[in-house]
Amino acid sequence: MIREVSLEKAHRILALSPVTFVSSATEEDKNIMPAGWVGTVATDILSLVMDSGNYTRRIMEKSGYFILQIPRAAQADLIIELAKSRHIHEDKLEKLSFFDPSGQGYPLLEDCLAWLVCEIIPEVRNQTVYDLFLGRIVAAWADDSVFYDGRWHLDHVEPENRPVHYVSGGQFYQTGSGFQLADPFK
Ligand SMILES: Cc1cc2nc3c(=O)[nH]c(=O)nc-3n(C[C@H](O)[C@H](O)[C@H](O)COP(=O)(O)O)c2cc1C
Fold first, then answer.
1. Ranges in the chain, pLDDT < 70
2. Whose CA is nearest to atom 5 of ligand 1?
3. Atom 16, ligand 1: which residue's CA is nearest?
4. pLDDT tens, position by position, 25-73
5. 167 CA from centroid of ligand 1 (Å)
6. Contacts (Cβ under 8 Å, ≥6 apart) of 163
7. φ and ψ of 34, to 5 deg
8. What pLDDT sits at residue 184?
9. Which pTM value belongs to this model?
10. Residue nearest to atom 23 of ligand 1 (CA)
11. 100 in ligand 1 pocket by Cβ < 6 Å?
12. Which of 2, 92, 111, 135 is exposed most, by the fewest CB atoms within 10 A?
């Protein structure tokens, strides 16, 4: 049976893209939070919806960039933990370790699967009206046990090391099993 979905919940139909962590930093401060409302706009441009009340947004607007990192299923508790706002939880970053492979001051959270650094393309109306940020990818790294030859390879990967999708109410899914057709684009 095909049932109608209320418009209030319809956006959750697309809640199967991977959950990300968004981080950003200035010289004085940095922050990180989970974000699911992330998308691809072009091969080098991504979108991110960032609520105006989030502490992370304040830092992004000062630094001019955001980093998307792809957590693994083993970090599901951390995803929930980092959804607490730094406005209230001042010690939110205390137990976290960041690294900076480019030496340019980008805070990449350790133990994730992949990282994308995006320079914000200023679009004031989108940012003000829709909380929508566009970012041009300027650097990227990935764990080469799961992302190599320019794409994800997840079939051999244990469940705890797969990306996750967050649907609602504490329910996650791991990216599932793949299947291969003859390459239709060759
Ligand atoms: C799985 C998940 C996905 C989320 N996705 C978003 C998102 O895409 N955009 C957003 O503004 N907030 C999102 N949130 C909520 C923020 O993470 C939350 O408001 C957080 O407290 C912001 O932290 P900050 O104030 O320290 O920046 C999400 C939360 C969870 C648990």
1. none
2. 35
3. 83
4. 999 999 999 999 999 999 999 999 999 999 999 999 999 999 999 999 9
5. 13
6. 18, 19, 70, 71, 72, 73, 113, 152, 154, 174, 175
7. -75, 145
8. 86
9. 0.96
10. 85
11. no
12. 2
